[in-house]
């Protein structure tokens, strides 16, 4: 595993900013084209008041189990496998596309691809799935926190 460098923290911050920009632009495009694509988070939000306990269990799975399984599969197996036959840059891009498409969430596809790019870059740079796993848990945890705040009436 490589030693942590502050520059890398800035790269992560830049990617998170890019994530926000991509999400905003994609949302504006969908709205402008009047395409009624929902994200998985929106579906969970809509059902959260009807089945709160189910939603809480789903959120725990989304924050802990999903990132662990996805990082082991996509960055532990898919990415290294792609690197055997492709240049590293292409392996990063292809693994990010597969990661995005595997979520079956057209409403969030560009954002998921950017997340996949960041996580594959983290895997390549660090030589480990652990930094990406932590970032993945953080990302899903933020989404879960927003949904929980919505459920308790703090967000509308």
From TrEMBL:
GO biological process assignments:
CAAX-box protein maturation
Q: Name one GO molecular function term.
A: endopeptidase activity
Which of UniProt's keywords are assigned here?
Answer: Membrane, Transmembrane, Transmembrane helix
Q: Which domain of life is it from?
A: Bacteria
Pfam families the UniProt entry points to: Rce1-like
**Is Transmembrane helix one of the keywords?**
yes
Which parts of the chain span the membrane according to its record?
51-73, 85-102, 108-126, 133-153
What is the protein named?
CAAX prenyl protease 2/Lysostaphin resistance protein A-like domain-containing protein
Q: Which organism is it from?
A: Thermogemmatispora argillosa
């Amino acid at each position: 595993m490589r030693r942590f460098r502050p520059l890398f923290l800035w790269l992560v911050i830049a990617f998170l900013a890019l994530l926000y920009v991509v999400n905003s632009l994609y949302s504006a495009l969908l709205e402008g084209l009047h395409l009624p694509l929902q994200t998985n988070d929106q579906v969970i939000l809509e059902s959260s008041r009807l089945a709160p306990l189910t939603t809480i269990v789903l959120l725990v799975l989304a924050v802990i189990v999903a990132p662990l399984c996805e990082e082991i599969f996509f960055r532990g197996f898919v990415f290294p496998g792609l690197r055997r036959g492709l240049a590293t840059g292409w392996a990063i891009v292809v693994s990010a596309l597969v990661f995005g498409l595997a979520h079956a969430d057209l409403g969030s596809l560009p954002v998921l691809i950017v997340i996949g790019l960041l996580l594959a870059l983290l895997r390549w740079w660090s030589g480990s799935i652990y930094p990406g796993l932590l970032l993945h848990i953080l990302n899903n945890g933020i989404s879960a926190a927003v949904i929980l705040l919505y459920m308790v009436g703090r967000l509308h």
